[in-house]
Amino acid sequence: MGNSPWEVFWLQLSAIVQYLKAGVQGDPHVEITGVNYDSRKVAPGDLFVCMVGTKSDGHAYVPQALEKGAAAILAQQPVPDLPNSIPQVIVADTREALARLSSFWYHFPCHKLRMIGVTGTNGKTTTTHLIKGLLEQKGGLVGLVGTIHNLVGNEEIASTHTTPESWELAGLLDQMVHMGAHTAVMEVSSHALKQNRVAGCEFDVALFTNLTQDHLDYHLSWEDYLNSKLKLFSYLHIGEKGGAKYAVVNGDDPMAPHFIRAAQVPVWTYGIREKAHIQAHEIKISPRGTTFLLKSSQGEVPLSVSLTGTFNVYNVLAAVTVALLEGMAVPDIAAYLTRAPQVSGRFELVDEGQPFSVIVDYAHTPDGLENILATAKEITRGRLITVFGCGGDRDRGKRPLMGAIAGKYSGFTIVTSDNPRTEDPYRIIEEIEGGISKITAQYQVLEDRRKAIRQAIKMAGPEDTVVIAGKGHETYQIVQGKTHHFDDREVAREELHKLGQD
C-alpha cells in the first residue's frame, strides 16, 4: 500500500475532511503522506483507517498504528484516550469512506477511463478477458482487474481478491491511466459490492452474466446476495462523467428483470432462449470449440470460437454485446473470436497425447459444475469421470447439491479435497456424499487430491473424458490453514507422463 510514482505525496487532513464531508476531532491541518488500513504496514505520516470486518475491527489496532507513526485516524466512532496530537476523522462507514478517499487521493482515475464492470456468479473471468481482447482489436490499451490476474498494460500483477480493496484498486486504475489505457474491464464480486470496495468508482457499463447459489456463507441469504449484485446497476446512472452509459443483461437468467429495473439507463439483452437484442442460434458444440449464428441489428453472421459449451456461448454473447455497443463492427468481432485465446483454468484441455480428454475447470458452484459436466458429457463418446471437492469455510449448502450434480452426469466420480482451509476435509466429503449417494453408487472417496487425479487418469480409456473441477487456475491448496503448492494442470500432466511410461 505504498506510494505509486503517480500518487500525490501528501494532503492536508482538512482537504480529506472537506471531501468526505466528515467531522474531525483535533487539528485538521496535519499533513497526511499516505493511507493505510493495515496497522502492521503503517508508515509515519499515514492516515490509519479503522476498517470493520467480519473477523476483526480496525479500531482495536489504533495503538499499533500510532506506534508505527500514524498521523491521524479515520474511524466510525471516537477512539478513546488518543494523544491530543492525533486528530481523528469520524465517518458513518470507514469502508465507503476509504473507497471515496482512494479515488480522491489518486485524482479520480475512473473518470479518465471507460469503466466496464462485470458481475454474476459464473462467467465473469472469461467474459472480461473476451471484452479486453475485443476492445484491444478496436485499438488502444485496455486494462483488466480480475480473479486470475490484474493486467496493467503488459504487466501482470497477482490478484488476491476478485475485486481488490479500494485503496489497491484505485492504485491499479491510476497505473492504467498513466500507461495509456482508455478502458478498464473489471470483475466486480458480490463481496466487493457489499463491502463498498467500488464505492469510489463510477462505471460506464454494467454487465450481468447469471445468478446461482454461491457465497451464502457470507451473504447468509439469497436476497442479500442478489441485492449486493444489484448495487452495481443501481448506481450506474449516478455520477459526473459524460458519455454513454448502458447495462448489458443475460435475458435468459430468471433474475434478469431485477437487473433491468435497477439499471435506470438503456439496457441491452443477450440470450439463446428468450427474445433479446443479441442472440445465438444453430449452436454446434465440439471438443475443440463452438460455432453458432449470431443475430444482431447488423444482421446474421456465423461465429466460430475455440471455447466449448453452451455456457461459453453466453460468455461470448455478453462480450460481443459490449463490443458492438462500443463501436466494433461484426466482421472485426468475428475475426478476433476465431483466434481468441483459452482463459487459464476455464475448460482448459491438458493434452499430452493420451487417447482420452483431460479438462481442468474452476467450476466451484452447483451451476458452474453442471454447466461443465453437461458440456463434457455432450462431447464425450466414452465415459465421463469427474474429480472434484468443495472448499472449506464456505457455503456448506452447495456441497450435497454439487455431489448430486456430479452423480447425475458422471459415469464415475472421485470425491476429493479442494481447499479444505481450516475445516476437516472428511467432514466436507461426507456432506458431498449426502448428495451423490442418493443418485449413484458409482463413486469413491480419495481425500488426497493428487491420488484422486492419478486414479481418474488410470481409469480412463479411449474416448473417455476426465474433468478435474474446482480449482482451475489456482496453483495452491489450503489445508489446515496452510498454503501448499498444487496445480491441477501440472499434476495431471505429471500423472499422464507416468501413465505413458508404464
Automatic annotation (TrEMBL):
Source domain of life: Bacteria
Annotated Mur ligase central domain residues: 118-323
Chain ranges for the short sequence motif Meso-diaminopimelate recognition motif as given in the UniProt record: 418-421
Domain Mur ligase N-terminal catalytic: 31-105
Keyword presence, NAD: no
Listed GO CC annotations: cytoplasm
Residues recorded as bearing N6-carboxylysine in the entry: 229
Entry-linked SUPFAM superfamilies: MurD-like peptide ligases, catalytic domain, MurD-like peptide ligases, peptide-binding domain, MurE/MurF N-terminal domain
Binding site for meso-2,6-diaminopimelate: 394, 418-421, 470, 474
Binding sites annotated in the UniProt record for UDP-N-acetyl-alpha-D-muramoyl-L-alanyl-D-glutamate: 39, 162-163, 189, 195, 197
Listed GO MF terms: ATP binding; magnesium ion binding; tetrahydrofolylpolyglutamate synthase activity; UDP-N-acetylmuramoylalanyl-D-glutamate-2,6-diaminopimelate ligase activity
Keyword rRNA-binding: no
One of the GO BP terms on file: peptidoglycan biosynthetic process
Obligatory cofactor(s): Mg(2+)
Binding locations of ATP: 120-126
E.C. code: 6.3.2.13
Catalytic activity: UDP-N-acetyl-alpha-D-muramoyl-L-alanyl-D-glutamate + meso-2,6-diaminopimelate + ATP = UDP-N-acetyl-alpha-D-muramoyl-L-alanyl-gamma-D-glutamyl-meso-2,6-diaminopimelate + ADP + phosphate + H(+)
Subcellular locations according to the entry: Cytoplasm
Family classification: Belongs to the MurCDEF family. MurE subfamily.
Protein name as it appears in the record: UDP-N-acetylmuramoyl-L-alanyl-D-glutamate--2,6-diaminopimelate ligase
Gene that this sequence comes from: murE
